[in-house]
Amino acid sequence: MSFDDQLKFDSNGLIPAIIQDAANGRVLMMAWMNRASLETTIQTGRTHFWSRSRKKFWMKGETSGHTQQVKQIAFDCDGDCLLIQVEQIGAACHEGYRSCFFRSVEGDGFRTTEPRLQDPGDIYGKKAG
Amino acid sequence: MSFDDQLKFDSNGLIPAIIQDAANGRVLMMAWMNRASLETTIQTGRTHFWSRSRKKFWMKGETSGHTQQVKQIAFDCDGDCLLIQVEQIGAACHEGYRSCFFRSVEGDGFRTTEPRLQDPGDIYGKKAG
Known about the structure:
The first copy, chain A, has 2 helices and 8 strands.
């Protein structure tokens, strides 16, 4: 049975993909894939996504060089979420942190829980984002 | 600054929450929260969600007893995804597996990567689900 038959893409043709660092289990980011980006991810071994805001197919690291080499792709019981183990080059977050989840709730506020590895301006040039 | 100001709920008032085992980093499940379920999660220290299919507020473990004690709540750079560390009692998955991500892609197919801890019928009675 094909794993693809097990997956459910939403009404926009998308499925959320949780990206986890294969080396230490740190959750690095969550982004959305459509069928084409999932197929390209499998074919190339590099993560590709669909940007809902930019309405654009993109490869992680295409600008920053911070690519993700795929080690394993799992999917959940309902088939509506992916969990992808990767080898991450550099910072996964466009803000320059290793993980996009660099802030945690503390009381009514929050605190930053990890060091910034790089200035966004150094990653993307003048346009940080 | 309140962390709540940093969060973006989608057009349905929902935000995805990745649930991770605080003990070993295993990603257990992904489910959706609305503002009320997030607030109740914070107030009670137990995860609460919004079921999109059943259109229902629910506490994880309310039927199975497999509750999740919250250890930390993180949120991502875009404020549109939560990452919650929990102490998980029993199986997180309604299929009786520790994690909902118990299947991984292998070639064109998939394989089960962890043992089933419990029969769903034993968790939920005759109605497995």
